[in-house]
Specification:
The complex is a heterodimer of chains A (387) and B (151). Chain A has 387 residues and is of the alpha/beta class. Helix content of chain A is 32%, strand content 17%. Classes of the chains: A alpha/beta (387), B mainly beta (151).
Amino acid sequence: MTDTIFLKDRTAIVGIGETAFGKAMAQSEEQLACMAIKAALDDAGISPSEVDGLCSLNMENVFQHDIARDLGMKEVTYYAQMPAGGHGGCGTVGHAAMAIATGQANVVVGWRSRKRSGRASRVWAQLEQRIQGSRDTWLRPWGIIRPVDEVGVMYTRYMHEFGATRDHLANVALAFRSHANRNSNAFMYAKPMSREDYFAARWVSEPLCLFDCCLETDGAIAFVVTSSERARDCRTRPVYIHAAAQGFDGGSAILANYFTADPMRSQAATCAKSLWRQSDFRASDIKVAQFYDAFTPEVFFTLEGYGFCGRGEGAAFTEDGGIALGGRLPVNTGGGSLSEVYLHGFNMISEGVKQMRGSSTGQVDNADCCFVSSSDLGPTSAVVLRN
Amino acid sequence: MTAIPLPYGDDPDTKGFWDATRDKRLVVQRCKACSHCQFPPHPFCAQCAHDETEWVEAAGRGQVWSFGIAHGPTLPGFQNLVPYPMIVVELEERPHIRMVGSLVAAPDASINSVPASAIRIGLPVDITFTAVSDDITLPRWMPRASESLKP
């Protein structure tokens, strides 16, 4: 296929924008989205009127029409929404890259804006008396209601099969909190956490406690993608989209993946095959990574699925500071969903860009690329960024 | 009036399952072409993509494949029952088939009637049925009689 267009390094993230993160913020989700997008465009030195592509998640409540009208965009020629919420964050980056590489658009913006108080923010709480959809039908009547219930049951089995413990979960929570303690925009910046604090926390859904769950926060994050050629004229150092992939396994289910032949196979494995096929970097070359961490066990599945370690070895990988700064693979160097902000993984994207610019509060020296992934328990996505 | 979320009993893809549970029978789908059995039910055979399946009865014996204990806050219909166990059961005669369930001490007992300390992966369980509305009867699971006597 001589006319296949490969994405490798053809496009770059040239701007990122973040609002403050907090609870009960005064602004609307629409206002927060506009603030983040405008900040990202200012970062790049690109006018909103030049934006002709818009990518978001299906859980986004600020729609492309709102954004284009609010910010004065003119002619929009590419727009897409990724399915499955937090599984699709990196998919928005990949679609932006594809749109530009194939000539569908010249400047693409991706964003996520969320208020916990927003009426649509907690999907599980809006369940109607009668369930629609085949997934929920086989979970909800028996009391598996929240995402944390679905993941908790998965982790009990994981512990049984691989000898993992709650101490391994604590390793994840503590590493990301220590990173947040260096990041003044992180929601948990001023709140250190000890192992004793972790084990004193209340249960949410055994075996998961409060600190195994992501924050519930307000805020917005946006990024701007354009061609690598154009990127060299932007204000910031280009961060190239080196590889981008999506993937899921037939028969799998989102989060509550109980029904496949091998539920302990990380669903990221399929996405990983596509990603590493495109990438000049291997898993063993990665010096810093940003993983989706709505719940601590997801980090183990991601480590295994992308080949940072073998099957069942994800928990042990976190021992001895393995995923903390200074460890063998620092992960979520800004604090992650657990301790920086929960925006369906868009802070993984912006933190990846900061690492490649050398401006992270948890900067990893000599990092020439950064791995970024979205939630692996479902139809997932990932990118490799490089500088 | 139930406060827990229930499915529609008349969905074309799943009606056969709920018709059977009202008769206190557990069924799974079997492909009419290749005999592959599957659960949860769906319109085509996942093994050979044939479009005709039939319902076959399962024995209703299994073991706990995994479990968790839900604490609040959760939906109002479950909030007064926390903490309660959630289980995934693997069928004895078809180990590749798993289904989500509730663990109860007796056929009409509440879903919080078995203490967490009595639950383990591998625990043998037998099916029971609880009518929760006019049209929906839920399969639930009880620790097998020989097991429930253990401390």
